[in-house]
Amino acid sequence: MQFVDSDRDISLYIHIPFCTTKCAYCAFYSLERSAVASGEMEAFKRTLSLQLDALVEELKRPFYTIFIGGGNPGMVGFEYLHELLKTATRYGRPVECTTEINPEFLDDGIIPLFDILTRVSVGIQSMDSGFLGILGRNADRETNIQALSLLSDCRKKYGIQFNADLMTCIPGQKIEDSLADIEAVSAYSPDHISLYSLTFEEGTKLVEKCTPMDEEDQRRLLLSCWQRLDELGYRQYEISNFARDGHECLHNKVYWSLGQYIGLGPTAESSVGYRNIVSSREADSLSQYLASPSFDSVELTAEEAEEEYLLTTLRTVYGIDKREYEKRFDRRFDERYGNFISDLDSELYVDDDAHFALTVQGFLLLDSVILSLAMAI
Questions:
Q1: Where are the alpha helices (DSSP H) in the chain?
Q2: Model confidence pTM above 0.90
Q3: Which of 84, 244, 251, 303 gives 65 a disulfide partner, CB atoms 3.0 to 4.6 angstroms apart?
Q4: In CATH, what is the architecture of 11-254?
Q5: Could you tell me the residue ranges of all domains in the chain?
Q6: How far apart are CA 372 and CA 344, in angstroms?
Q7: Phi and psi of 309, rounded to 5°?
Q8: Which CATH class is domain 313-377?
Q9: 39: left (phi over 0), alpha (psi -120 to 50) or beta
Q10: Residue 37's pLDDT band (cuts 50, 70, 90)
């Protein structure tokens, strides 16, 4: 790709847009099995394979990280996922290689992939059957337990890491319910736990049948969960992500540092370049992708790139590296934002000569903090 900065690492994201059924809260592009026409999945697999092969041959270098997400990648089968990974690693292995998988699709068939995979991310969401029903998940508590047990065994035998995703702030959920989910999942000692606050996106089934939890209740619930995860040894390194020391997800850290990544598959997004950021998006539907897999690219303005940098880096405990900011945007961070920072509540941030980062209290008010700082752009 012509806009890639050849002096910097490049990561790969592959989007598999198929699900058995669509979760009630999901606003990402995905297609239920019943909505996929005969032959479309095989056509997708052929198209993606050709596209990936062309990209690998154009770059002729290893990817820094690889992440296969969805949808549910298990829908295309482990054998095909293995073929994709072999193509993607033709010029060398990544530092980290991950696939998402839904619990109900996880079985011993994944084991051959461990010659390339280093991490598996399993979408547990809750261990409570009632809340799983509200979310529209296909897995129940027993299926979740089987998936966690399998991954725990695979870590011992094959050395892979695994992530467990949980959802909180589900309507009707109390603090003790969310803490019970954390206790149940942490019993299997995943290397990484993601704890996402349920969002109500327009057009989803969730909006039609539920109302969001009160904001103050959400804050209390999140603080209780964050504290418990810390007590269990899971350090918060991004608003929704917690890991044992040394087990942070490197692929996601690429996103949050505005690193370079290329996305393949319908609606997948890419971001390449350094001082000049080019953002690309694949075709907006499976039919468009099959007709012409191509990127709609736009070079961000300096202001757009800087705003994107705030939106991503301030989600992390590392915050903004002021030297990196100056190299990237050719201006001093303190001169740009100093006056606006002084207007913020001092409990929301930490600021020194090298870094500016948000505290836990700042994370709870992230949107308003970013809005305040964006006024300087």
A1: 40-59, 78-88, 129-135, 141-158, 175-186, 205-209, 215-231, 250-256, 286-291, 302-313, 322-329, 333-342, 360-364, 366-374
A2: yes
A3: 251
A4: Alpha-Beta Horseshoe (3.80)
A5: 11-254, 313-377
A6: 8
A7: -65, -40
A8: mainly alpha
A9: left
A10: confident
